[in-house]
Description:
Helix content: 25-40%
Strand content: 15-25%
Largest sheet: 9 strands, antiparallel
Distance between the termini: 26 Å
Radius of gyration: 28 Å
Number of strands: 22
Number of helices: 10
Number of domains: 2
Amino acid sequence: xxxxxVLRAEWTKFRTVRGWVLGTLGAALASVLLLLxxxxxxxxxxxxxxxxxxxxxxxxxxxxxxxxxxxxxxxxHQALTGNGSITVPVTALTGVLAQEPGRTSPGITPWAKxxxxxxxxxxxxxxxxxxxxTGAHGVRMQDDFTHDRAGLPGRPSAASPxxxxxxxxxxTVTGYDSTDGVHWAEVGSARLTGLPATVQVxxxxxxxxxxxxxxxxxxxxxxxxTGTFGRVALGGSWARGDRQDGWRGGWRGVQVGGDAGTSxxxxxxxxxxxxxxxxxxxxxxxxxxxxxxxxxSLGPAYTIENFLVGTFAGLIxxxxxxxxxxxAEYRRxxxxxxxxxxxxxxxxxAAKAAVVMAVAFTVGVVTAAVSIPLGRHRAHAxxxxxxxxxxxxxxxxxxGTGLLLAATAALxxxxxxxxxxxxxxxxxxxxxxxxxxxxxxxGVLPASSAQWLLRLTPAAGFAVQQTLPxxxxxxSVYTPSAGYFxxxxxxxxxxxxxxxxxxxxxxxxxxxxxxx
Length: 516
């Protein structure tokens, strides 16, 4: 009960000081205004680009898990019903890279892919499972965009083909590979919940853009790939009737989706195509089948964390409020009365921390909940891409914003109690939290140095707002200046929480030992 009385007293103290209340409201207002200013300047820059570019960037498909995806490739397919298998040898994977307008050279991107596919429908974002040969990562089995498993290493050739097989049994699709067609190894199995009886099955080729990962932002250039296949064999119920000779007839070619920003505007081949080659096919395509991770090739685009940019302004304002919540008592000579009323100094500091954390958490959650739909509205009005994420990820970003502000406010309060001077404590928070964040994300520092800052300093806590994960099977620029943190969202927040606990512990010890 004594602890609750102390807490109530500190809350009453906070809400009756007009400056602190106005500062809290100012933090919320600053967060939203910074968002509006940031999106306005970005939109103005985008207006200088072509209307066609902006229109093409207006939307991205959404995968089964709720994430934004690229689902653009050339597909030679037929609709097949029931259980069965599809088997084909891949004898070559080649490609063309665009170096500059009107100039190309032979080459293949590391995650160019060609192989066989079982897909729920031709609609973008629908469920699928695929066995494929890649440009630099051997045979892979991938399903529903986010899942990737390794198979045989190496690239195929006419002398050393890679044989691929997919077997469907109800909603389960299993992938196999082989070098001789006799000895088969299972690569993986995918359960595609809700897979209909009739699915689209066939051969595909896709090639994401060639990504330059050096530098702070990197770059990209268009790329096209061609896969060469031997005879297609259909098994099980798929081989009945006129499907028995399916490799010769019944196949149709279609470009699924558009380029989705991953291969540029290589006009000759972006639409893809296929050619019968003796007993098999040659299939050419661009685009990608993968989750969206941002990067240099997607043009005008926003992530959820872009809509949370105002957190930075709110954090600075709340830092000032939190520091003054303790230093004002020293400056005005009221700390003696406070300690006389609450002799247990640790309890007093805990009550102050609870108040500023609750206030900061509320500001963070409310402003994040307002900023995200507001940002979406402004983005859609100007035909910008908004990278969709699962609802659980968006909720974590909203709650994480509140936790980020709460932990930083508690850190500021603790430094105020340790240093006893507002200017010194505020400067300490700026140097340990704000400055490392700015240096890391601005591209001023080398990527390796920026990553270490975001591993070791309280600025690591900003990772809790990140919504686009790093996928090993998608090549992009994964640096702090491109919006990627070296730690996981909760890992980064744990670093901030650790610094906060350390500062509060030091403040408690000093408060107990010092004279007023």
